[in-house]
Amino acid sequence: MTRRARVALLAALGAAAAGNSRAADAPPPPGWYSTSGLSYVVAAGNSSASSLGFKLEVKRLWPKATFTFGAAGVRADSSDPARRAIGSPDSFQVESGERVLKAAKYNALANFDRRITDRFGWTVCAEFDRDLFSGLSGRTLGLADVSYLLANRKEFTLKAGLAATITHQSEVVPDPTTKDTFAGLRLSADAERKLGANGTYVGGVAVDENLQETSDLRVRFANALAVSMNKRLAVQLGLLLLYDHQPSLVELPLFAPSGLPTGLTVATRAATLDTTFTASVVVSFAPRAATP
Question: Can you give the pTM of this predicted structure?
Fold first, then answer.
């Protein structure tokens, strides 16, 4: 092979490699994207319990904007006691106990993100949370955010944001010492990391500060690790940590020192930290990439 031929071959290989690199780094095509996961467990017989978990995310991508709708929930109940005898010691019937709700958490959001430059953008968002066992009948939050992409590589992205918020909440047990509607400030960071050929980690932390009562601080730390089985299916592990420095009031049944119920209830603060762990199979849909 002559020197001129070798130079031409190397130039062609370099152009092909550059083209493949640009294709690999190209953003996802505009269109609709969705991911969803569902889990349901039921037990019957000597025990009676059921639990339902779901998560849905739908996105619409444009060249410089993204609309996202998301919803998630966990609900569990069981018979308490699992079985009981009704009657006398000599004559009785066995039946399941009353169904008792053990967990009920729901979250939904609608988010619109607009990029002004490759790194700078703004966001408007509305969120709703409901967690009866944390004393929260409902919390609605609206925010306006400015964000900056600190890292934007194929294998790693990191975005930080600062938002003004307005929150309205209703509590299961009304608390006369707190306000139901207040203005706040949110600091947030979201990251996504590719792990090998099939793994992806997505994490986000949001710190909400009540500007009218600074002791009312909330932190949301969400993590998800997914491993793709094919283009549509993935196994995903999720961990959600919710910290509330000033939790809502909840009513608890009062028992005597002997352990017998008194029939009374007392109001106290809910726990400051809630943890939710999920394992699910996720189904994803995306538009086909444009054919060159």
Answer: 0.83
